[in-house]
Amino acid sequence: MQTQYIQQLFVRYKILALLLAVAVIWIFFNKFTDGAFMTPRNLSNLLRQMAITGMLACGMVFVIISGEIDLSVGSLLGLLGGVAAVLTVNMGWHTWPAIAAVMALGMAIGLFNGFLVTRLRIPSFIVGLGGMLAFRGVLQGITHSKTIAPVSDDLVYLGQGYVPATLSTLLGVLIVVAVAVLTVLRRRRRKQLAIQLLPAWADALKVVAIAGVIAGFLVTLNGYGGVPLPVIILIGLLAVFTYLGSQTVIGRHIYAVGGNLEATRLSGVNVTRVKLVVFGLMGLMCAFAGLINTARLAAGSPSAGTNGELDAIAACFIGGASMRGGSGTVHGALIGALVMASLDNGMSMMDVDSYWQLIVKGTILVLAVWVDVLSGTQRD
């Protein structure tokens, strides 16, 4: 009976449990770093670091929901970031044309991966594994295994810049208003469809809690230098991908394909197109992450993105995506990315040996999948 109760808690309150886990992790590291972990400066660096994994997780969660996997994203991140450095440093391109070219290249490579999976019927695991090796090789070839620096100041600003306090506060207010409006619209829609509603006070409390978190977030970061620009970009991507997954036809098709591929095909959905869209978006997110990573380092590195695919996949599973496909959320994946970044940052501040860091992160991933198994058992 106790085990069944725990399973029900995992299924119904997974996001709340994740947020509590983040709080516990932060309190633990803050205690053992003598309060250095939760300083505005370190939290700013933590969120900037988390933004890159979060961008990969935005695309990866849709790949996993659709029942596929992509192991090439870390190497593709490095390759696209290296291309940006080569274009701006070696070839003298202006920043914005280089950014446009890198994003187009990222989407094209993602679509090519999708073509291999859907048309040639090569398992996505093998396509990703091959891409992991090939993209890393191409990166080392175009950079001659050397760091390319310095990139242009405009590009560096994307990774190292801050948003002014006034603008970030305005964005925070707009986010709270949007959450409140969407909550009211959702309640009206559920009422029209005669679907059971939560008490009004529960939804109001949720909006107030979100407003409180955003206010604390802004006060803390504005106390250091402002909200890092990569974090603002990630929040924008969160809004876009959440809308895509929950409010559009293609979003519903992605969930349907992962939930039951054959039934979705028989219902008339173009499964091939859905998966091409998913892999194309994954390539685009690799471009975003690669650009931000190169901007953050102010250089293109032949080792950039190493193990990035593992952090992105772990973030999705920690955030509630199912290894069976058909379930998962973008905001859950981003909370998972925050967990991974917090572990990296905190253990580095404590001077934990790198091998212990890998052991801890691997253990967390296994536990996340175990929770998914428990959740699946409960649903069954």
From TrEMBL:
GO-annotated cellular components: plasma membrane
Membrane topology (UniProt): Multi-pass membrane protein
Domain of life: Bacteria
Source organism of this protein record: Dyella tabacisoli
Name this protein carries in UniProt: Xylose transport system permease protein XylH
Function summary: Part of the binding-protein-dependent transport system for D-xylose. Probably responsible for the translocation of the substrate across the membrane.
Residues annotated as signal peptide: none
Upper lineage: Bacteria, Pseudomonadati, Pseudomonadota, Gammaproteobacteria, Lysobacterales
A Gene Ontology molecular function term of the record: transmembrane transporter activity
Entries under Pfam families matching the protein: BPD_transp_2 (PF02653)
UniProt key word Transmembrane: yes
Keyword Calcium: no
